[in-house]
Design brief:
alpha+beta; three-stranded mixed β-sheet
Length: 154
């Protein structure tokens, strides 16, 4: 599986701003751990497929996910960031199973790991639009999962 950046330029790997560091602090690096916590707490998940070399990913991190009003919404989710700067076979398997075609990609999953349909983010987005989508995700996560939904467990 080859994931391509939304934009091909960006800072070298390892270069982050203080805003990026703050935004990363509450993200889990492991989907399996996130799924366990989501199931235990009946919370939906937000899964961020990202990489340090992806300029659009960094823009979402620093301008959208770090915005105070968005951070307030994120408190209602178990947040998982799969960092393709340190690519692994398990990341590739998860991306293939969830049909992730490129970066950035953010998915909302219910507490059982099924993707909440119609809310996938695959490019630039405003903070207001992210908040709208996250509210819809929370509302839809409370509904029973349709029988054709696929869990995302690794």
């Amino acid at each position: 599986l080859v994931l391509r950046p939304f934009w091909p330029w960006g800072l070298p790997a390892g270069c982050t701003s203080k805003t990026e560091d703050r935004a990363r602090s509450h993200w889990l690096p492991d989907l399996e751990q996130g799924l366990r916590l989501a199931a235990a707490g009946s919370k939906p998940l937000l899964v961020d497929f990202s990489a340090s070399w992806c300029a659009a990913c960094r823009q979402i991190d620093t301008r959208i996910l770090a915005a105070p009003e968005v951070e307030a919404q994120l408190q209602h989710f178990i947040t998982v960031r799969l960092d393709y700067s340190r690519r692994s076979l398990s990341h590739d398997q998860i991306a293939r199973r969830l049909e992730v075609r490129g970066l950035p990609c953010l998915l909302f999953l219910d507490s059982r790991g099924a993707e909440i349909q119609g809310l996938r983010i695959t490019g630039a987005i405003s903070a207001a639009e992210f908040i709208r989508l996250s509210r819809r995700a929370r509302a839809q996560a409370q509904r029973p999962t349709p029988p054709d939904s696929r869990p995302a467990s690794p």
